[in-house]
């Protein structure tokens, strides 16, 4: 997607932030410690992206919104920023097929991530089931020019503030 955009952009996937974490541990973390480590990582990710944006950079986050607290924190952290929420969809059967090909996660993990769509808002939606990544990226770039206001983050923030 980056080569299709007119100005310099950063692509900051959450996996890249996770990959910066040390992998050699002197002890095995229990489930609660792993959960807390992942929460801190994700909170740091939100703020790292916000820091890039605060200095005038355009940033693409690659990040599943699979827990409500993530969305809540993003809504707070990105108050005052122009955020475009892109929803990437794919048929469950295709997700299973891709997981089998990848081999680095259990088949069905993506299928279990239904909370990714629970917020019910998006500015742009693409479906990768039968469309390759380059075509989806081109569709997103075209759609970026046509997104109307209020955007999804603003609608979500307004809805949250009134409940």
TrEMBL record:
The Gene Ontology terms for molecular function here are: ATP binding; transferase activity
User: InterPro entries from the entry?
Assistant: CPT, P-loop_NTPase
The active site is formed by 15
Q: Which Pfam families match?
A: CPT
Keyword field: Transferase
SUPFAM superfamilies found in the cross-reference section: P-loop containing nucleoside triphosphate hydrolases (SSF52540)
Gene3D superfamilies recorded for this chain?
A: P-loop containing nucleotide triphosphate hydrolases
Q: What is this protein identified as?
A: Chloramphenicol 3-O phosphotransferase
